[in-house]
Amino acid sequence: MPASAALSLLDGDFLRQLDRLRLAPRRALTGREIGDQPSRRHGASVEFADYRPYQPGDDYRTIDWNLLARLDRLFVKLFQAEENWHLELIVDGSESMHFGRPAKIDFAVRLAAALGYIALKHGDRAGASFFGSHPGAAFTPSRGRTAWAALFHFLAMKDEVKGTDINHSLTRLALGGKGRTIAVLISDLLDPGGYEKGIKALLQAGRTLCLIHLLSPEEINPTLLGDLTLIDAEAGETLDLAVDAHTMKIYRETLQAWIKEIRTFCHKHGVDYYSVDTGGSLEDLVLRSLRQGGFLS
Amino acid sequence: MSFLSPLWILLLPVGYLVILLHKRHPRRREEIVPSILLWQRVSRVLAEDAGWRRLAANLLLILQLLTLAALMLALMQPVFTSLGKALRHDIVILDTSLSMAAADVPGVPHRLAAVVQKLTTTLAGRRPHLVTVIEAGPLPEVLYNGPGDLSRLAGVLNGVEVKHGAPDWEGAALLAHSLATSQTTGLLLATDGSFPADELQPFAEMFPHLPLTPVVAAGEGENAAITAFSARQAGSSLSECDVFVRVVNHGKSPAEIPLVVAGKNGVIERLHLKLEPGEVAQHVFPYEFATEEVLEARLEWSDALPHDNVAYLTAYPPEPTRVLLIGAGNYYLEQGLRIFPQVRLERRLLYPEGTSYPLVIFDRLPVPENFTGTALQIVAGSGLETVSRPQVVRYDRVHPVTRFIDWSEIAIARAFRLPPYPGAKVLVESEAGPLMQLIENEQATILQLAFRLEDSDWPLKVAFPIFLSHLLQWVHPPGWAYVREAVAAGEAVALPGALKNEKGQWTVETPQGQKVGIPAAAASFRAAYSGLYYILSGAGRWPFAVNAGSDREADLHSRLVLPTSQTGEAVQGAAPPRRPLWPWLVAAAFILLLAEGWLYINKGRRPNLRPTLIRLGR
Predict the structure, then answer these.
(1) pTM for this structure?
(2) B617 vs A224: CB contact, 8 Å cut-off?
(3) Interface contact flag, B618 A242, Cβ < 8 Å
(4) Distance (Å, rounded) from C-alpha A44 to C-alpha A59?
(5) How far is CA B609 from CA A220, A245, B58, in A?
(6) Residue B37, min C-alpha distance to chain A (Å)
(7) Please, which pLDDT band fits residue A187 given cuts at 50, 70 and 90?
(8) Alpha carbon B596 to chain centroid distance?
(9) Interchain pair A228, B618: CB under 8 A
(10) Which of A182, A257, B561, B592 is the 20 to 30 A CA-CA neighbour of A191?
(11) Total structural domains in chain A?
């Protein structure tokens, strides 16, 4: 991957700031490979975790002889098992994501690149895929500090997939996965068919899911007025509507209710949820919001 | 409500055209949005209050239709006929003429009482909010103008008295017209109907849309009356006269009516007049009047109306009228005064102070400041501004000096502008100022004439001796005639200037013995009741008679005929007033247009959106 391609997504300063971050999902996972990420399993790493009384069968090497000398009781040391994580970046590549200034897909790709970079930088595996009405191109999960360039190259292609069917796409991706993974879904969720089934499928497949909901400034505060025929950028459907101040007031209330509905669903199912204005700064999102939200540390 | 131009309703199809134009769908602007997902939800919310939304969306159409409707209604000229709760105002014309005194209605003293009873009942049924009562007697006046309180009205109506003359219908109609308002819904005529058919025409002219509603009460009484009693000089002496009496029988049957004429020394004539119904008897007899004598003619007869069974004639011997002419001589004046044999004309160059003349004429000379008495001053002099060919524009038709003369027919070549005098009464006026004015104060009465006789054709016209006759009668009535003709009730009696009391006013004693003060400005007296009146002055009591009898009032038969234009609706009552509504409709259309314009401008303006309140983040 040429350095210029990477730099077209994220600049060098930002990448250096990302070097200090690591993934810290609320629900810690058990990786299948030894890695840099702390696991809930106590293992053989050098990170001390706790003591517990000795039980027959325990490894003698874990007995703390100093405590035996002081207390005349047998305790074994417990160490935090260090494992690697699998980050799965699922990016909505439908036509609606190409709307807005800047386009939501640009914001989504840069966000995915940043998260993938963080994962790869810490020895975790990172994969990525686009979806629309069905799963599109995918970046095979890779590991290693040099894999980020290939990831960036893949994301920069912004594979556009016609149509939108979030439930179908996510279900397909859940079936095709390989066990417990941190999945980050980056989408505007603008699918008349809904998103709930797809998210549930990912959760049932063992994913720890973080949903990053993108909204462009034009969607938050539309500047429409008058007698209009609204054309759906994806489906081509039309809707005749007289837009005035009252209509705009109803729109804002509807949007607010929709976001609240998504947030409630996510909280109910243990999904980290972030709604993001793509007119804002990516650096601010990654360096502040995701850290404050606990997804990064 | 009714419409004066209902054909404008043909504009109604224009309303359909407006609707068709409004319903023509405008070309919608296409906008690409990332998804119509949220907009579909918005549309569903909007559909829940679609009725109100549709109304709001069509507000412009509604305003346009309302504007069109208002304009169409305005063109149809709707008028609102105020009925029901509208304020009702009745004007009552109450006849108080002599015939109303006839005692021929059973149960009441006279016809007026019967009419008042009937009128009270009528008003109780009509229940007007406002009532105006106008007395139509010889001297019309407003008796009441206020709320339709029946008790107060009854008090006013029961206090009305019959007058001894003919009604002045025109005066009553003028009063009614001046008090009529848009709320006036009734014009009631309370009368006995015993007057000529055409006398109510003034009401038809002044109230073309408000017909008279008659309230009539009349009896079948019989009446005989002395309708004329006068005297005319017949001999060489002013006191030798022929006396004339006329009697009429308005009864239904032949009658033998005794007539007695009595004077200072007792009965002069006694006659038995055999008169058929409607027959008139005239009797003339010679008589030489004694000094200050009053003749009384009386029908010794009982009928429904006793007031016209008696008549008076007053006579007193003439005195020479001394007239002093100050000046170099005035041919026309001297010739004019020579017509009157009782005038004793003297001429001097200067006014002799301390003398007393009934009339002093200052011919082109000033009146001395200490002058007392009555003077005619012909104002002319080199120091006064002159006016060429002044035209008479107004003159006093009532004043005893100027009445019965058509002053506009007099041609004047040159006149002098009279010096202004506070309180002067202008009797003849031209476009350039007064031609004759009367100055009265406590000491003197001065009649100023603004032109020389030789500068006009007045001395060549009959108006000149008439003027002199009036002037002499006014300044010195004792010297004018032996017999003073009686007047009818309501007619003006000229009050001689020489008979003023020490306060400069007149005092008149009525037949009932009451003394009435007449101000100097009035110069005449109008009596509503018949009988013998006296002018009281320091020199004595000067009688004049007011007789009730007249051909008009003596006939008591009801012959009421309403004016032709008013008979059709008389029974239904007054035509209610109409109020045009089109100005209000035009104003409403204008306001609707303003509202529509405001709405149109504001609908096209981008809504003032606040910054988003959408909560983002976790």
Answers:
(1) 0.46
(2) no
(3) no
(4) 11
(5) 12, 8, 23
(6) 6
(7) very high
(8) 55
(9) no
(10) A182
(11) 2
